[in-house]
Amino acid sequence: MDILAIETSCDETAAAVVADSGDPARPWTVRSNVVASQAEIHREWGGVVPELASRQHVRDICGVVERALEDAGADWTDVDAVAVTQGPGLVGSLLVGVAFAKALAASLDLPLVPVQHLAGHIESLVVEGGRMPLPAVVLVVSGGHTNLYLTTAAGAEGLSHRLIGRTRDDAAGEAYDKVASLLGLDYPGGPVIDRIARTGDDHFVDFPFARMTHDDRNAGPAMVRPAGLAEARRGRQLEFSFSGLKTAVKRHVQRRRAALGCDGRLPEEEIAGICASFQRVVVRTLLDRTFLAARRFGALSVGISGGVSANARLRADAAARAERAGLPLFLPSLALATDNAAMIGAAGLRRLHAGVTAPLDLNAKASLPLDDAPGGWQSAP
Amino acid sequence: MGYSARRGMWILALDTSTREGSVAVARGGDVVAAAAGDPSRTHGERLPGDLLAITAKAGVSLSAIDRFAVSSGPGSFTSLRVGLATIQALALVHSRPVIQVSTLEALARTPGAGDRVLAWMDGQRRDVFAALYDRGPRACIAGPRVGRPAEILDAWKPQLAKRPLDVVGNAVTATRALLAERLGTGPVLVDEPPPLAPVIARLAFERYGEAVAPHAAQPLYVRRPDAVLARRRGL
């Protein structure tokens, strides 16, 4: 069965054709995977401008979808279903993909499968690495998200994802962008800081690690509060916060600029040291939580996906920790780390096989939780 | 294509420039089915359902449609894109071209006695989208532009002096006093024009040869993105 998938949740217009492989150990075959990135458009703004992103999606979507079919050697009659990212994301961007996908499904009389974007990121690990030993702890980390999930089996081929940790403020990728911006480096900040940090001393500055000593005051009324103090503490241990780190970098840079009497860039080796020190704190924070969760939940594998999973230091340190913990580690290639439609197609096929389809009045949702398990995200066992 | 061949062609038209929007099916220049949308539901929810319903009512299948027509704007950015993305997908699947029609031009086709028509749409930010037309094909005198109602009326004062004049669009209600002050009591004011999709279908028939590939169809935003406007103001 071939599924045509469309992803427009942020600043990449993407389409892919994904097929069942017939091999349960590696269930998905990516027949094509096309991404039109808008990074060049948003670079001069230092971040994604939603209206510009939406405008570009409408420009690119026809060509991207056609190219995905062409690369797969397929035409419309070969498509058996249409998958689309329903959310979370920028609603104006999501709507372009959802409207387009619904019209395709209606004209071709095909089932329409809505996919949660982060379920796609988790599925990207299976696309390349094959079936994950379950339960698995998966960190989805990007410019928009820093979420920890406990992924378990649901039915014969289904997956269930439960949110067990998340960031209280900035996503890790967002922290990279902000730190890059205040160092006068390019957008997006992740790849730039990763590259510069390689030449720097990662103990150059002693940036702080965030410790969660209080409950999240901004968690919202819907959040389930754990019953006891010990339980609450355990829940907090899996939460992230990066805004304090960003502020620490900002203060440090301001102090150094004042001391050096410079109003522009700091010396190169100093920038490299700041990048390396910042990155050390981010990577350790991410991996501490991930592997703590893996121990606590008795995970049989660990996965890291999303744009930040392309970070070289994160990949190297994660590999070392996984080896120490004796757990298989799942990481996507660069092509599947950042937003793409192949992962949406794979997650779409999984849902389709579980009998999930959407009616034609499907609407995009800017915030769409992945957590489908009862109990809420903080009720750790 | 000769005129007689065009007479048999099916056109599906969609307007999402206003909250309710509308859909229509025409055979040649004759509208055979049309419907206004339900403003309590978003275009995102109603599409492509409204289009499937109107083609079914007209007794034609999507695959038999020869041209997909859509209002290009101006209007709500998001609604325009939802409408256009829907039409793009239909046109792409069926290998048919798209004909885009300006919302303001469609408004200016609202029947009336005036020789000149001011299309006058609410821009949702205490401003209006406006364009000025002479009756008859392709007679855009000024615009399209976006701006404060008083500024536009002042800028176009000489052209607006021509009589008889009709002012058409959903910005009329909020600017009635201003229009009376600047234009006098002569012009006929129409604040609730009929649904635009039938007009768009007829205009698409007139412009049958001007269809473009769905890839090339893009909204007519008129207003620049906020980020660009803010930068221009030096913020």
Which keywords apply here?
heterodimer, A: 381 residues, alpha/beta, Nucleotidyltransferase, domain 5, five-stranded mixed beta sheet, 12 helices, 10 strands, 43% helix, disordered C terminus, B: 235 residues, 2 domains, 10 helices, 33% helix, 26% strand
Short description:
The complex is a heterodimer of chains A (about 375) and B (about 240). Helices cover about 45% and strands about 20% of the residues of chain A.
Which spans of chain A have pLDDT < 50 for at least 5 consecutive residues? 373-381
Largest sheet: spatial strand order of chain A? 3-2-1-4-5
Name given to the CATH homologous superfamily of the largest domain in chain A: ATPase, nucleotide binding domain
- CATH class category label of the largest domain in chain A: Alpha Beta
Q: Which structural category fits the helices and strands of chain A?
A: alpha/beta
- Total tally of structural domains of chain B: 2
Approximately how much beta-strand content do the residues of chain A carry? 15-25%
**Biggest chain pair interface:** A-B, 34 and 36 residues
Oligomer: heterodimer
Proper CATH architecture of the largest domain in chain A: 2-Layer Sandwich
Q: What is the overall number of helices of chain B?
A: 10
Task: Please characterize this protein's 3D structure.
The complex is a heterodimer of chains A (381) and B (235). Chain A is α/β, with parallel strands linked by helices and 381 residues long. Chain A has two domains: 2-132 and 335-379, ATPase, nucleotide binding domain (Nucleotidyltransferase, domain 5), CATH 3.30.420; 172-327, ATPase, nucleotide binding domain (Nucleotidyltransferase, domain 5, 2-Layer Sandwich), CATH 3.30.420.40. Chain A is built from twelve helices and ten strands. Chain A has helices at 39-43, 50-71, 91-108, 117-129, 172-182, 189-197, 229-236, 243-260, 268-296, 312-325, 334-337, 342-353; strands at residues 2-7, 12-20, 28-37, 81-87, 112-116, 136-141, 146-154, 158-166, 301-305, 329-330. In chain A, strands 3-2-1-4-5 form a five-stranded mixed β-sheet, sandwiched between helices. In chain A, strands 8-7-6-9-10 form a five-stranded mixed β-sheet, with helices on both faces. In chain A, a hairpin with a 3-residue loop joins strand 7 and strand 8 (158-166). The radius of gyration of chain A is 21 Å and the shape is globular. By secondary structure, chain B is of the alpha/beta class. Chain B has two domains: 3-104 and 194-232, 2-Layer Sandwich (Nucleotidyltransferase, domain 5), CATH 3.30.420; 111-190, Nucleotidyltransferase, domain 5 (2-Layer Sandwich). In chain B, 33% of the residues lie in helices and 26% in strands. Chain B is built from ten helices and ten strands. Chain B has helices at 3-7, 43-46, 49-58, 77-93, 103-108, 149-155, 157-160, 176-183, 197-206, 226-232, and strands spanning 10-15, 22-27, 30-36, 67-73, 98-102, 116-122, 128-134, 140-147, 165-168, 188-190. In chain B, the strands form two sheets. Chain B has a five-stranded mixed β-sheet with strand order 3-2-1-4-5, sandwiched between helices. In chain B, helix 6 (149-155) packs parallel to helix 8 (176-183). The radius of gyration of chain B is 18 Å and the shape is globular. The relative contact order of chain B is 0.19. The interface between A and B is medium-sized, with 34 and 36 residues.
